[in-house]
Amino acid sequence: MDRLPIFRSKSDSMSSMSTTSSFTSTQKGEWLPAPAQSRQKVRLRALLGHCLYRRVILWTLAVITLGFWVFFTRRGGSFDLARLGTDLPEETKEQSKGDNEGRDPLHWLKYKHLDGYYRGLRTLVPISEHKPEFPFVPGRQPATTTVTSAHLPTPTVFVPQPDYESKEYKSTYHPVQTCYIDENKKVPAPDLYAYNGVPQGMPDPAIGSNSLLGIRDDVCFDRFSRYGPYGLGYSEDEGGLGEGMDTESDGSETVWSKTGKIDYRNVDWGRAQQQCVTDNRKRFDINAGRERKKVVRIAVVIRTYVGFEWNTHAIMNFRAMVSELSLRSGGEYTVHFLLHVKDNNLPIWADSETRQQILDESMPREFHSMCTLWSEAQMELLYSGGWGEAVENPSGQSVHGVYRSAHFPLQHFAMTHPEYEYFWNWEMDMRYLGNFYELFDRLGSWARDQSRNHLWERSAKYYIPAVHGDWKNFTELVVQTTRNAGKRPIMGPVYFPGRTRIRAEERSETFMPASCFTSPGDGSPGVAADDSVRCGVDENADLITLNPIFDAEKSGWVFASDVTGWDLTQPTPPRRCAIVTASRLSRRLLEVMHEETWRFHHSMFSEMFPAAMALHHGLKAVYAPHPVLLDRGWEMEAVDKHFNGGYDNSTSGHGSPFDFQNEHNHKGTSWYYNSEFAGLLWRRWLGYAQMDGRGEDGGRAGEGTLRGGKTEEESPWSTGRLCLRSMLVHPIKWEKPNDG
Question: pTM for this one?
């Protein structure tokens, strides 16, 4: 469809705000059942209309609830209101000292901890010989910890990018020019290394799958094969970070055998990225010739803030991201930082010295030229006007604030960067064990291959291979469950009372691809085909999330009704949400969000607005089931019960795993904002000793016995450094023991 306009005059904006649509049941699209409670029926709001009375009553109820919680919780944990039920922007997060557990005892404490994650390089076996410790298979003998070699294996170069030198690639796209780290074009971006095989007994993911997404699961990475090329393991005098030199390092020299130890002291990553794009500009120019395909450019936007405490591990993480995504791809990706300036009084647009001072105090010099500064005052100017009242505002924060509307600066960034078609929204406390290009490229390809048929229903459910079987079986299961519930799958835009139409809809345009319509053969557009399995196949996704996209209504998620700008006399609009803001958004989705914001003054909580807008307007939204590990050997039926406990055996509605009473189940996962396991495993992999989280009462983070570290890894009975398969971990709040 045609690109939506980006700008419009103020007079046009004001006149268009009254534009709404009245749909009947005969129109194309989807009607969702109205929420159980209509806003017209709720008169308590009027009774509590006085701000002072409402606050007194709400705070009284909060204090009473807190008292009951402290009294009945075994550990006496307290609510962490700043972290309750969401993956908030980094600067608003506070370390939780309690748990929203809701149950005593926690059922998962009864399960035995898994040991296979901590077997090292000397236990590597080919994937064909691998016997995972978990999930448990009846009749299969567990693998024993056996040292397969007295010598450490040797890693090999790992290149997940296409073969740019192949005849096939060059016949389809313009040739890729080599990109360099230094201005003199002497130092090309380095190779990443991996080990063939995996440690014997390494548990398989409980949720999701690498192989399903096209990510290799037959290799593993140790800390030096992953980060050695970016400065880990050698001194600052040699141009490294001086990090990792206090850990076991036998055999690590292999990763520098080809390039030597690269001197990163004077690198300007923004300049290197720009030079890479310039040298490869023919690949992205749609007018460069019809004989070659244009390569679509993708931005990776990392949200950071003034006051973030940088460390060497964070630096090497983002060096890896720039090198693997941008320089090694010939400029297909470009990495940016969105730097939140919290002091609205600073003249960040008027004075270059102020801007430079902020950069000097907030960012490593090597990343300065990648930064875009923004402030909440800027968002108030950009999205000014009459904002209506929110259905609920549990945080009490402004709609223009990063707490509730972290998508605002991303929307603005997209409007000012027309060179990009897709935007990865990323956070500072996420790490990836593996190659970033392989992750982002495979997620995009897999999402493109997904049919829209029952896509919303599939995306609302955690994929658990040991329970659901292969993906084909999982897909059929979702179809059958939907039919048994007497529901129609969501295939296009949804219509509801009070819905407004964006400009594209006023022009009778649709975001649905041609594959979703049946043609009568007379040249007319045809009608939507609800049962078309080809609908949406080969269509790039407008939204890719890394957690299920759930129905927020009655889900128990604290911010489910943080909805602003819609008519409060109507039922609350249908919402979808994906916890953890990491996601890929298309330009057209961000343009829809931008128009809904400036024109209609609509917004929802940060993790809800993108998915809800995709739902309302019929854009393609996909949850990509990447591998999520568990620290304990759960019964697989229990995994399905607790992670798909909502309606239709999904994550939606009552029983959702995102209800704050149920979120404790994520404590032992590798990917969720309240995870304890992610940080423990990450630091053990980095080579630092950690409390193993085991104890007589089941064990929790910070409990148990000190394990790992240099002494243990160097001991004669050690199996060597940890070697883990490609996986995302979140949150990583600190990395070295003395940083915590």
Answer: 0.87
